[in-house]
Amino acid sequence: MFIHLIVIGWLYVAVMMAVAEATSTTGTMLGAIFTFLLYGLAPVALVVYLMGTPGRRRAIRQREAEAQEAARRAAAAEASKDSGLPDQGGEAPADAVPPVRKEP
Q1: Which of 11, 47, 48, 94 has the smallest number of CB atoms closer than 10 Å to its CB?
Q2: 43: burial class by Cβ within 10 Å (0-12, 13-18, 19+)?
């Protein structure tokens, strides 16, 4: 939550710098736009992205753990389900007739 305050403050300062650039007698609107983009948005975007990296990693690990747990539960449910019918045990059926080979 503290990072939001820093971002808002930095963007406010960048907007004020851009306004000062635009209203200056030697300043231009193009210079104001570049001032805001290069001193405001670019650094803030980089900092927010870098500060959010641990949270994104945590979310990815949590999703992977949940997926593994769901797969484990599904496998356990499938293994516990025993219908007693042939070829229903989760194993591949064996060939009834072996393949014919030419004799040497």
Answers
A1: 94
A2: middle
Both tokens assigned to 26? 């030697």
Q: Tokens 């231009």 label which residue?
A: 28
Distance, in Å, from the CA atom of 44 to the CA atom of 7, rounded to the nearest integer, reads 6
Query: d(Cα 80, Cα 67) in Å, to the nearest integer?
Result: 20
One-letter amino acid of 88? Q
Q: Give the model confidence (pLDDT) of 45-92 as tens digits.
A: 999 899 889 999 999 999 999 999 999 988 877 766 655 555 555 566
Q: Are 21 and 35 spatial neighbours (Cβ–Cβ below 8 Å)?
A: yes
Candidates 73, 71, 51, 74; CA nearest to 63 is 71
How many other CB atoms are found less than 10 A from the CB of residue 55?
9
Residue 87 DSSP label: T
